Amino acid sequence: MTREHHLREARQSFLDTLVRKGIRDQRVLEAMKAVPREAFVGPDQAEFAYDDCPLQIEEGQTISQPYIVALMTEAMQLTPEDTVLEIGTGSGYAAAVLSRIVKKVYTVERHRLLANLAEERLAMLGYNNVTVLCGDGSLGWPEHSPFEAIVVTAGAPSVPQSLVRQLAIGGRLVIPAGANHYQQQLLRLTRTGEDETETENLGDVRFVPLIGKQGWRDTEDRAS
Ligand code: SAM
């Protein structure tokens, strides 16, 4: 079997897995089907690209489990006109998935190497509606706010108020949060009014820590 054939088959069974685990939003499934996850990991990991598990990337970080990417993307309740912010670009994979669903994606990564690699990959693959910034995403990206949705792909000790303030009214923040470094609750917080929010708990998840002014301190950046 050629490598391409193996990847094609693996990609189909990976989509079946997402559906079996409960992903229903067709735009999310279409986007997950279209983005080549193997292009976002090193060559040594490419054969595992369609396994439903996180994989190691540079700087001791991870590319999230595909089911979790799909779950978080679905939880953002996106429409094609939305402008969204992602905190934790990592490999750029989730930004690529988002870019196929919404009008514009801004994404922030604290590691310069990861931000540069993600920017290169996204450009090479033609995801031209994504802009990458290297910086502390716990503070958001106020210049481009308000956002219809914000997703944080690292675990925060609590919900950063900077991010809540950068949501449009009706906007959704999807974030893993909790006092434990590597075990969080996945929250969806909807900004229902100027100073009002509603929070839903979508279940337990496990992410690398969000390091920054409204996250954990940087001595706590350890690989999971
Ligand atoms: N979304 C990524 C992908 O598709 O590959 C996976 C993200 S990985 C689980 C979490 C990322 O958050 C890491 O790359 C980490 O460096 C980054 N991160 C942690 N704290 C951050 C912060 N304050 N601002 C921006 N990025 C941060």
UniProtKB/TrEMBL annotation:
Location in the cell: Cytoplasm
Origin: domain of life: Bacteria
Residues at the active site: S64
Described purpose of this protein according to its UniProt entry: Catalyzes the methyl esterification of L-isoaspartyl residues in peptides and proteins that result from spontaneous decomposition of normal L-aspartyl and L-asparaginyl residues. It plays a role in the repair and/or degradation of damaged proteins.
Family: Belongs to the methyltransferase superfamily. L-isoaspartyl/D-aspartyl protein methyltransferase family.
UniProt protein name: Protein-L-isoaspartate O-methyltransferase
Organism from which the protein derives: Marinobacter azerbaijanicus
UniProt gene name: pcm
Stretch of the intact protein here: 1 to 224 of 665
